Amino acid sequence: MNRLSILLCGVALGAMAAVAATQPQMLLIGHARAAGSDAYKQLNLFGDVFEHVRADYVDKPDDGKLIEAALDGMLTSLDPHSNYMDAKNFQDMQEQTSGQFGGIGAEVSAENGVIKVVSPIDDSPAAKAGILAGDSIIAIDGASLQGMTLEQAVDKLRGPIHTPVTLKILRTGKPAFDVKLTRDIVKVASVNSRKLGDDIGYIRISQFTEQTFDGLKKSLEQLNKDIGRDRIKGYVIDLRDDPGGLLDQAISVAGAFLGRGEVVTTRGREPDDVQRFTASGSDLTGGKPVIVLVNGGSASASEIVAGALQDHKRATILGTRSFGKGSVQTIIPLPGNGALRLTTARYYTPSGRSIQAKGIEPEVVVNENVPADLKGQDETHGEAGLKGHLANPGDDKSEEGGSSAYVPAEEKDDTQLQQAIKLLEGTQKSAYFPPDPKTGIPN
After folding, report:
1. Is 133 exposed, middle or buried (0-12, 13-18, 19+ CB in 10 A)?
2. DSSP characters over 142-209
3. Cis geometry, peptide bond prior to residue 434 (ω within 30 degrees of 0)
4. Which of 102, 129, 201, 379 could form a disulfide with 223 if both were Cys (CB 3.0 to 4.6 A apart)?
């Protein structure tokens, strides 16, 4: 079966070949056949139930919907990130990873049957309307989302551009309220940049799409023109509330600061199912100091970048603990133009650590000053808070929940950003900035 190399923080993993023909292997094959026989018995049971429903249910059911519901049930029993996509949802995913799609512009997830906003996309209708990370969407155009799958809810959120949609939002500490939006083409400019003061470059990466690395290169070139390559004191790379995206883009982005070196390793079910991904190029910043901002909304591909730069002592990580999504999903096209999104591996940072259900711990922990009316609403539960999440494979099996995902709208109120500026300007000191790549310990 061909596997498409479009993944949400993943890569197309090659088919695994069985080797060796020893007696123990023969015993294993025999055991596998016995297990397979039991599975086929269960499939016969499924077939019997399916036929009874088709023949005897009080109303005539839709066979296609029955099968899709069964597939959804099977996959959601594995982990929160494995699921079946019908043709439309598969197309929607491809549009999103391409960097342009229609809708309200919000990354959403399903938590315990509730549709929650992971992060509004910058400059989208959702962001402009004040939708916040952590908000629950409980109804769309008056229709309750109770009992709907994530895919069904997303289908209702999307629609023709310039059409209105009303969301009923539940926010911690507040009664439910309506938000009226107008759907639009959501163009994900995944990289934005600007000067901070006279000599610091700021680069915001909101998502890892097909255009992210190209956008990063253009931003670096523009900052060199605006500030002057020799005058730049350093860079702030803002990965806060970045939900992730394509793994190949994360590898390229990390390589833009590393030049060369291992970025990430993926490990599948079998001991020999290991792939290492390395940067091969040059440091596009010329070795300038780098501070990476993360928070509870930084997940997946953004954690790969932060983890690689942290392990290589190339950057100082500042903010609060990241989300903790340390798994790889492979997209497998299926007959009928649908696709299977299946968790096929865990990823590990260059030092060999898994951040699954733990996240990236910043060297410099800085909490934002959350307004009183938003306190308690800014916390994410992280990967560890998702039902059925994969366990961390470490020996201690310890897990950590999420952290604050609040980012102030005004630069002057952004405590994390202001702290990064002070470190780069030298007006404030930290033992962890800049890191010492030779000794592997802080200066």
Report:
1. buried
2. TEE-TT--HHHHHHHH--STT-EEEEEEE-TTS--EEEEEE-EEEE---EEEEEETTTEEEEEE--B-
3. yes
4. 201
- Which residues have C-beta within 8 Å of that of residue 193, sequence separation ≥ 6? 201, 202, 203, 204, 219, 220, 222, 223
The CA distance from 138 to 133, in Å, is 15
Catalytic residue (choose from 116, 288, 325, 358): 325
Name the residue with tokens 């023909």. 21
Amino acid at 245: G
Cβ neighbors of 329 (< 8 A, separation 6 or more) are 7, 8, 9, 10, 81, 82, 341, 342, 343, 344
The per-residue pLDDT for 353 is 96
Residue 300 known to be catalytic = yes
Residue ranges of the chain assigned to CATH 3.90.226.10: 191-425
Q: What is the CATH number of domain 100-187?
A: 2.30.42.10
User: Measured between alpha carbons, how far is 122 from 136 in angstroms, rounded to an integer?
Assistant: 19
The CA angle 392-393-396, to the nearest 5 degrees, is 80
Choose the CATH number for 191-425 among 3.40.50.1970, 1.20.1530.20, 3.90.226.10, 1.25.40.10: 3.90.226.10
Low-confidence ranges of the chain (pLDDT < 50): 1-32, 440-443
**Residue 394 in tokens:** 């470490």
Q: How far is the C-alpha of 405 from the C-alpha of 134, rounded, in Å?
A: 9
Catalytic residue among 300, 322, 354, 404: 300
Determine the pLDDT at residue 16. 22
Question: How do the residues of the chain divide into helix, strand and coil, expressed in percent and rounded to 5?
Answer: 30, 25, 45
Residue 267: which of 342, 348, 324 has the closest Cα? 348
Closest CA to 71 of 373, 338, 383, 345: 338
pLDDT at 21: 28
Work out the burial of residue 65: count CB atoms within 10 Å of its CB; fewer than 13 is exposed, 13-18 middle, 19 or more buried: exposed
* Catalytic residue (one of 92, 238, 311, 414): 311
Q: What pLDDT sits at residue 34?
A: 54
Q: From residue 142, how far is each of 156, 167, 175, 177 by CA, in Å?
A: 11, 8, 16, 12
